[in-house]
Amino acid sequence: MGVKGNALRRPSERMSDSGFRLMSLTFDIVDLIHPYIDGRVKTFGIEKGMTVVDYGCGPGRYTTRFSKLIGETGHVYAVDIHELAVAAVKQKIEKQGLQNVEPVLAQGYASSLPAHVADVVCALDMFFTVRQPTEFLKELKRIAKPNGVLVIDDGHQPRDVTKRNILASGAWTIVEETPDHVKCKPSGS
Fold it and tell me: Is domain 15-186 annotated with CATH 3.40.50.150?
């Protein structure tokens, strides 16, 4: 079998449409009962005028918060591999009048974003699903400014796995660790 055959046997990182809808509903309920995201994003170092990439944006629950933090002069790229995520973000853009948000459909680990565009790249609630962390982290480094920051959390994996994958990539250096997330700078900067 060629590359196509191997690709077909490998499980997809993209969740099913029904799984995405269930996840979105669950997030809506969690956010209603326990609205912790606003407090969480305040610890990421995001400021007015910045360019932020919400990589693996899902239904946009962080995207909308980033949009408020960066203000009219900033820009948020909401990136995901799932068409329903991009559609959900587009709905939020229309419904909430978000002029500073741009949804982007990624193809695998290729985001199509310009190089060195982001002050802050956030990969939240999704890193545990990435099957090729080195390739993924190199793409995040490509889109981060040389002095940019990566905010990444564990999701459903132990912290030691997160840190091991980050360091093994050679793309990032861990500069801060909190119980909630890890902050990184591009290696060599």
Answer: yes
